[in-house]
Amino acid sequence: MSQSLHVVLGAGPAGTTLAAHLLGLGHPVRIVSRGGGAAVAGAEAVAADLTDHAQAATAVAGAAVVYHCANVAYERQVEVMPRMQEAVLDGAAAAGARLVVLDTLYPYGPTGGAVMTERTPWRAVSRKGRMRADLDAAYLAAHRDGRLPVVLGRSADFFGPRVFNSSLGGTVFPAALAGGPVLALGDIDQPHSYSYLPDVAAGLARLGAEPDAAGRVWHLPTAPARTTREVHQLIERATGRTFTVDVLDAPRPWGPFDETFMREYAELFYQYEEPQVMDSSAFETRFGVRPTPLPEAVAATVDWFRAALAARG
């Protein structure tokens, strides 16, 4: 078993899935969250406020690799995430660790449907997109300046086990198993990339294991884009049920996506009004991996939600 400590910041779906994957690789793992109650068997759970420099430094002490998967509510991101970045950079640098950052497609902004690669210009038009672009520029500058090794792994919209708060999550799979209606956003006949969370976790772990991958952005393994309507058809096939779809053609409250969330998400709604296609071929070629085929990933997600709902009664 490897004795190099791997520290995962954030106990949401991405952080817990990554922690479980790292444990499977034989690494000692520590999960850091504000509450410190992450339930991943075999991992150490630590509570910390990651905007506090002292707490962040203590949380990552002894780490060989730190994975930044922590996030905050949409309405607090512009205020909180830059402060969190500085504390995490300082703490990881003091520990002598490599830093792997889970990132989004927001810095690219609207592309007019052009396929997004790692060479796509950063032209964010939203506040949160510009904030993410500024953070990413600072991460890459920290690497260039020799402060610590940093690598960014970008993902499209998540789906998969543990994923509820997503456009392809809790408003889709449980309802599909019950026959609908499920939620969809924007134009469901546009191609849209969806990243399967176990592939995202495996990709982040691979970046953490490859020191020479640092200093740049990578697109994490993501299956070729299909339209959201086609993804719904895959879900129907996996559940054995047909369902109706409620399409939001504009950002407005629906179910768990309340008024506060939708007001904050409105500036990013362009992602569902134009093709949103991410190309991960650079990662796949460099590391010799392939994303899980979309039908297989959808079927596994349906199985997970079916079991989770049964367990909840």
TrEMBL record:
InterPro entries found in the cross-reference section: Epimerase_deHydtase (IPR001509), NAD(P)-bd_dom_sf (IPR036291), NAD(P)-dependent_oxidoreduct (IPR051783)
GO cellular component: cytoplasm
Domain of life: Bacteria
Alphabetical list of Gene3D superfamilies matching this protein: NAD(P)-binding Rossmann-like Domain
Pfam families cross-referenced by the UniProt entry: Epimerase
Coiled-coil boundaries: none
GO MF annotation terms: aldehyde dehydrogenase (NAD+) activity
Domain spans labelled NAD-dependent epimerase/dehydratase: 8-214
Transmembrane segments: none
PANTHER family for this protein: NAD(P)-BINDING DOMAIN-CONTAINING PROTEIN-RELATED, PROTEIN YEEZ
Official protein name in the record: NAD-dependent epimerase/dehydratase family protein
The species this protein was found in: Micromonospora costi
Organism lineage string: Bacteria, Bacillati, Actinomycetota, Actinomycetes, Micromonosporales
